[in-house]
Amino acid sequence: MNQISGKSTYPLISLFVLMFLSDANIAQPIDSVKDQSPVYVGAKVHYGFIIPHAEGLKEISESNIWGLQVDVSKLNTSSKSWSNCNCYSRLGFSFNFYDYRNPEVLGHSYNLAFFFEPYFNFKSRSRFSMRFGMGLSYLDNVYDESTNPENLFFGSKISGILLMNASYNYLIKERYQLNFSLNYNHISNAGLKMPNKGMNFPTASIGLDYIIKPVKLEAQEKVSGIRKKSLLGYGRIFWSIRSVDADSIYGDKDKLMIGLEGGIIKGLSNINGILAGMEFSYDGSFQEITERLEEDYSPFVISLHVGNAFVIGRITFTQQMAFYLYKPFPSTSKSYFQRYGIYYRIGKMTSIGFSLKAHGHVAEHMDMRIGVEF
Predict the structure, then answer these.
(1) Of 197, 233, 207, which Cα lies nearest the Cα of 117?
(2) Measuring CA to CA, which residue among 210, 186, 216 is closest to residue 9?
(3) Under a CB-based contact definition with an 8 Å cutoff, are residues 229 and 190 in contact?
(4) Within 10 Å of residue 168's Cβ, how many Cβ atoms?
(5) Among 151, 167, 174, 374, which residue's beta carbon has the most beta carbons within 10 A?
(6) Contact, 105 vs 152, CB < 8 A?
(7) 195 preceded by cis ω (within 30°)?
(8) Given pLDDT bands bounded at 50, 70 and 90, which one contains residue 105?
(9) 3-state secondary structure the chain
(10) What confidence tens digit (pLDDT) does each residue in 54-96 have?
(11) Number of C-beta neighbours around residue 321 at 10 A
(12) C-alpha distances in angstroms, 146 versus 58, 150, 210, 287, 358?
């Protein structure tokens, strides 16, 4: 079977850039203090381990990781920023260096990510926050059939990184904030080049932030995301470019994958709900391989989805378990997959975002999505 890969995702950082720029020129007074959007400059030290999530990875996953991180971000204090998540949040860039303590096989990674970090409280010195981010990773020692056949984690020097962490922040003084974080990181090229097992590695970190021009923060009027017991409908179109690798007869070809999804979210609280929906797609890479093999597989896929959604102001995070209802092309032996999505609402109904499709621990591809919420 010819190798299929996806080329869909890294420009999607533009979604976070859109959120960042949308607040850049908004200034609202807070408790008679001019909005200064305080800038945070910080550094962290990481220590963690690699999760050996597949056969053949255990032996090269035995070392512990250490890393260094530098952040530059701003705390948005405008009313428009508050409406994004009913909270104050930091938007910024994070540079991470990780040493996997196995230079002959795994080497090191250099990562630049854009992140969104909402604060769940802000009136005391103790502040809790969650960070979500994505970006690019440069890996200096990847798989090579001759020189490095053991490294099944990384198939290409340029990959993507997704990160999530939970932090306890303590304001030591007005300008200094100490933080302790538990972090979960995933590096993968989203199927761009094989092998692509991808690496999952949790770390613990300790760091210090310096706050330039801190301001006093107070709660503002809440913007409703989804009310308890209410229904929120959604419909989206999605697309990505998937590549079929060259073989002895045919060259590389890029093919369009396009589809539609729709469903409902049932509110359980003001920010959380359960969802159900369906997805229909056409995958041109399936059509290409079918023609090469002179087979008669249909390139269409239909699936049923159930899952969870966090709707925080203008931002929606979804985690779904999906079951194939119609999948004639034998792209996988699995009857199910997972889909993870993040969407940002523009105006009253329109949303833009992206999603990641995975079979178990293996990411298949990412796609861009635009649609409506009603």
Answers:
(1) 207
(2) 186
(3) no
(4) 13
(5) 151
(6) no
(7) yes
(8) very high
(9) CCCEEECCCHHHHHHHHHHHHHCCCCCCCECCECCCCCEEEEEEEEEEECCCCCCCCCHHHCCEEEEEEEEEEEEECCHHHHHHHCCCEEEEEEEEEEECCCCCCCCEEEEEEEEEEEECCCCCCEEEEEEEEEEEEEECCCCECCCECCCCCCCCCEEEEEEEEEEEEEEEECCEEEEEEEEEEEEECCCCCCCCCCEEEEEEEEEEEEEECCCCCCCCCCCCCCCCCCEEEEEEEEEEEEEECCCCCCCCEEEEEEEEEEEEEEECCCCEEEEEEEEEEEEHHHHHHHHHHCCCCCCEEEEEEEEEEEEECCEEEEEEEEEEEECCCCCCCCCEEEEEEEEEEECCCEEEEEEEEEECCEEEEEEEEEEEEC
(10) 767 888 888 899 999 999 999 888 777 776 667 788 889 999 9
(11) 13
(12) 21, 10, 47, 33, 29
Q: Which two structure tokens, joined as six digits, stand for 244?
A: 């079929």
The amino acid that residue 16 corresponds to is F
| Burial class for 207, CB neighbours closer than 10 Å (0-12, 13-18, 19+) | buried
Confidence of residue 174 (pLDDT cuts 50, 70, 90): confident
Both tokens assigned to 150 = 């053991």
Angle at 56 between CA 139 and CA 339, to 5 degrees: 70
Radius of gyration of the chain (CA): 22
The single-letter code of the amino acid at 152 is L
pTM of this structure: 0.69
For 121, the token pair is 């409280």
What mean pLDDT, rounded, does the chain reach? 84
User: How far apart are the C-alpha atoms of 147 and 124, rounded to whole Å?
Assistant: 54
